């Protein structure tokens, strides 16, 4: 089993944009007994309060599942909670848990996870959209197909859950489509190369680029390991 001896630091940002409701949600939880962390980002389907509620239920449930059980188990728990809610809302979801040396990820829909090595982003997830379905079969999708998901938290079968693992990079980025459909991967990486930038810079840039959706990002990075410091006793100073 993967262990975690260093804790990542993270930040989140979100904006409602021109929508009536912000149906995106993020959550993170650190288990006080193990130090293990679980991150989650959800994007509610539709511009309605029921969508926002589904997203909040999904992320708050997912992060409470121990990281040792894996992000797939967190996704399954979120699905049970969303299905049990009488509000009837739905969402897409990505869940990630770090281990020493990398991250494990599970997802449904078009919420994304990227690894970050300090210079470039690598997409870890593969969109569950009608557009991607046709691309995989060598056909050109229409623009509308980019916004039609083929899996969601409420509807996906367990075998349809996406999963991935990455080893090596120090950072992880989770985004809703309001970020990654408004900005190219190269544009996002250029923003993140500025040391002070993070989730807020991506969300601001997505809105400035004319984004028409809620935009949300979560950025996590492992802090550099500090060398062990040797202690030297201070000399005793005698008073005269």
TrEMBL record:
<keyword id="KW-0378">Hydrolase</keyword>
<feature type="domain" description="PPM-type phosphatase">
    <location>
        <begin position="9"/>
        <end position="222"/>
    </location>
</feature>
<protein>
    <submittedName>
        <fullName>Protein phosphatase</fullName>
        <ecNumber>3.1.3.16</ecNumber>
    </submittedName>
</protein>
<dbReference type="InterPro" id="IPR001932">
    <property type="entry name" value="PPM-type_phosphatase-like_dom"/>
</dbReference>
<dbReference type="GO" id="GO:0004722">
    <property type="term" value="F:protein serine/threonine phosphatase activity"/>
</dbReference>
<dbReference type="InterPro" id="IPR036457">
    <property type="entry name" value="PPM-type-like_dom_sf"/>
</dbReference>
């Amino acid at each position: 089993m993967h262990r975690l001896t260093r804790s990542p630091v993270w930040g989140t940002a979100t904006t409602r944009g021109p929508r009536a409701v912000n149906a995106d949600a993020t959550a993170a939880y650190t288990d006080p007994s193990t130090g293990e962390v679980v991150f989650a980002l959800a994007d509610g389907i539709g511009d309605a309060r029921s969508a926002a509620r589904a997203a909040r239920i999904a992320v708050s449930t997912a992060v409470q599942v121990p990281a040792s059980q894996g992000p797939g188990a967190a996704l399954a728990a979120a699905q049970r909670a969303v299905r049990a809610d009488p509000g009837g809302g739905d969402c897409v979801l990505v869940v990630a848990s770090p281990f020493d040396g990398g991250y494990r990820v599970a997802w449904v829909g078009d919420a994304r996870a990227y690894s970050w090595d300090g210079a470039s982003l690598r997409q870890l997830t593969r969109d569950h959209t009608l557009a991607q379905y046709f691309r995989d079969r060598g056909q050109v999708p229409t623009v509308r197909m980019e916004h039609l998901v083929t899996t969601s938290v409420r509807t996906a079968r367990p075998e349809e859950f996406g999963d991935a693992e990455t080893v090596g990079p120090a950072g992880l980025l989770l985004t809703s489509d309001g970020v990654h459909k408004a900005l190219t991967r190269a544009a996002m990486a250029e923003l993140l190369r500025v040391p002070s930038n993070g989730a807020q810079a991506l969300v601001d840039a997505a809105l400035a680029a004319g984004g028409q959706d809620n935009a949300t990002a979560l950025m996590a990075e492992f802090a550099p390991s500090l060398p062990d410091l040797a202690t030297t006793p201070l000399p005793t100073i005698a008073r005269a």
